[in-house]
Amino acid sequence: MSHKVFSVTENGKEYCGCEEKKEMVRGASKYLFTASAKRFYIKDVKILIPATWETQPNYARPKTESYSEADVIIAAPYMNYGNDPYTLQYGGCGEAGRYIHLTPDFLIDDKFLQIYGPRERVLVHEWAHLRWGVYDEYNEDKPFYFAPDKSFEATRCSVDITGIMAECKDPQCSGIKPCEVDQVTGSPTKKCQFFPDKKQRTTSSIMFYQGLNITEFCNQDSHNAEAPNMQNKMCKSRSVWEVIEQSKDFKASVPMNENAPPPTTFTYLQGGDRVICLVLDVSSNMMISQRKERLQQAAELFILQFIETGSFLGIVQFNSEGKILQELTHIEDDNSRITLANHLPNLAEGGLNICEGIRTAFRVFRNFDQMTYGDEIVLATAGEDNGLTSCMSEVKESGAIIHTIAIGPSAAKELEVLSGITGGLQFSATDSPDSNGLIDAFAGICSTGGHFFNQTIQLEIARKKTQGKDWLNGTVSVDRTVGNDTVFVVTWETMATPAIYVFSPSGQDYSADFVLDMALKESHLKIPGTAEVGDWHYNIDIINATSQTLTMTVTSRAASSSQPPVTVNAYMNKNSANAQSPIKVYAEVSKGYLPVLGAKVTAFIESDTNKEEFQLLDNGAGADIIKNDGVYSGYFFKFNGNGRYSLKVKVQGSEKVTKLSFRKGARAYYIPGYHENGYIFPNPQKPPVSEEDLQSDLGSFTRTTSGGVLVVTGMTGSQSPNFPPCQITDLDANIEGEQVSLSWTAPGEHVDQGTASNYEIRMSATCKELKDHFENAILINMSGLVPQEAGKREYFAFKPEGIVLKNGTIIYFAARAADTFSIKADISNIAQATIMLPYIPAVPEDPESTIDITSLALITVFSIIGICIITFWKICCWDFLRQKKFNNCLL
User: Fold this and answer.
1) Example GO biological process term (predicted)?
2) Residues 706 and 741 in one domain
3) Is 540 within 8 Å of 499 (Cβ atoms)?
4) Is 341 found in the same domain as 407?
5) Are 792 and 871 contained in the same domain?
6) Which one of the listed residues 10, 120, 126, 416 is annotated catalytic?
7) Regarding beta strands 401-407 and 376-381, do their DSSP bridges make them parallel or antiparallel, or are they unpaired?
8) What is the bridge-based pairing of β-strands 59-60 and 265-270?
9) Which of 444, 696, 764, 891 could disulfide-link 706, Cβ–Cβ 3.0 to 4.6 Å?
10) For every residue of 786-804, which 3-state class applies, written as one string?
């Protein structure tokens, strides 16, 4: 496994921790080599150093490596608690995660070794999350389960991992005692913990707890399919190794003959100021649908608003030839931005040669410092070009990053290849008059250097196609995390300037402060200092009857360098598809590395002929893997033909509703302690979550962002396939008295939208039957349940027939929905219901009618002694008499 990128962020002191990283990676490579049966190891690692840190002689310049694409991010957690190593993982089973997050303290403070285990083993645990999309085999919410052998087991894999279940007598765990039993459920209380033996005889599994002397992932033979953990839930009770065996890595590998992996090589990379060149299409293709004017406006917004101060920017135009309009210019202030904006092209004629535009940008870079490594190109074009493949090898060798913006339905099909091979972003913009695609695309090309505090934050991007005398109005919320460099920009299409009104939350009128640019039909307002917190109101009035398109764009930056702003990142699980399966859409809403909960998140997916709007939810159902982790998810499935589909996401936070939380899901297990030689060696208790920190008042806020492009091919016609309801992933079962209660989140008629037609729920005495032979299990009569709309909670209770409910009874359940065409969903997670009779302590008798236990004991002891004496005396007498009688006979 090569080219793994570690990125160090600027927050915190200037300490690379490079030696600690190298030691960790070397150990991880050896551990991974063993765990993968000699298939995988870490070949080389590139470490990105912040540009603001002191330069060292051994630091090279990055090529296409970037913070946004880093595999491992080294950054402080922004709060007092949060040194848990974790992986941001929100895809399905077998789908790669986003990144691994490690803190500087974790790398250098050895106190974490006892808690998480050796660093190299932690890295392999997290790497399995990131690379192969497997899940944890522990469960902090359900640490124990009732096993088929009628005993409680710790949730783990494999079941051969030994240890003891016990409670600490005090917070310091100076002593232990047997686990108490919940008198209602019959299960161990929350104070009960599993302390694994320090030395284990079994060899698996790394995804339970990597700190033990284990060396393997659970495989088909050692896997514990009964454990209620995320691996079983998400991967249909398959073992971790079975999932890895289906990966591209595994299929492309063979076991090595060597007993140890080759050594890992390390490269240190440090970028400088951001260097970008706009490469803009001015061919005759730009004459259609006001593409030229819309591109000018969007590019001007990028120059005036979006690109960060301190960057270097150049401008190139191209049709059949490339031309430099402006060499790289240092953006220092508003004057330098205006100078650059004045060099934007105003042309639309001639043929198209995209490679000439790219080569001209390379000349701009080399004129600056003789290099192209790490420099960025923003390529916007609307035409087809059959010769684009002629410069692909040159692009690869350049080390430059190319972000592509496809304008209209006929833009070159190879654009996404360019961005793909260089690590760039990809966007598209339709010709629809009410589309904001070009502005959205340029706004999406913000800094990827991990500098939260310099990043341009998109608060609002609104657009309206007016009909006669009309207006565009709205409200944009400025929250406490932003406010510096707040800019309002209005664009229009005709020569008549609209009337623009902007009012602060306190009612101050900023309407007269707009700066007008009639040439570009644009007007902008920059709020001095830090913008007032609260709801800002705007209104744009058309004074003539001409139909045109209006836009309002509002951006800002962090209010303070000590606190990161609320941000949103949007993704799709694929960038190309054949429309034979739904696409998963994700929006990660966070403040620094802390998730933001309770927001309203709306996704917009636009093609050349249609626009879909739907909600993304953080409810742990459907496309969403983990509830309340700050990742909002949903499905897109309404394809209407081949072509490009662009994603935009809007987030709205409400005061006293949105709040911060801590990362959940794929993270290293915080072990409570170990059992060794009959003693418990406890670890410090995990720091409690501070409600004061979590209830940080974010106030109302708005955010928008672009999420890239999906390219659909292979469709016949414009009719989307009929997709079944999505899989139920949160089925829950309980036995209450003589009834079984089931609950789950309703899927839709089509994936996660609409209302399913019916449910099929089956039960079995074994988990294996439901997993392997669902149709053979007992069918539950669901005729009395009318399905609800997708997203709502379903409840169903019934009395099972033919099953005697008694203490220790275990029943397993699985479900699936079907649509009106009887197309069935995948089988749900398997839920377990157990009958545990409550523990009833002995009731003491009336004290007045009882005997003191000491007196009773003494009476009992003396009675036994007396009986023994009498018995002994009788035996002796009998022997004496018998002996005497025998002697008389002899006489």
Assistant:
1) proteolysis
2) no
3) yes
4) yes
5) no
6) 126
7) parallel
8) parallel
9) 444
10) CCCECCCEEEEEECCCCCC
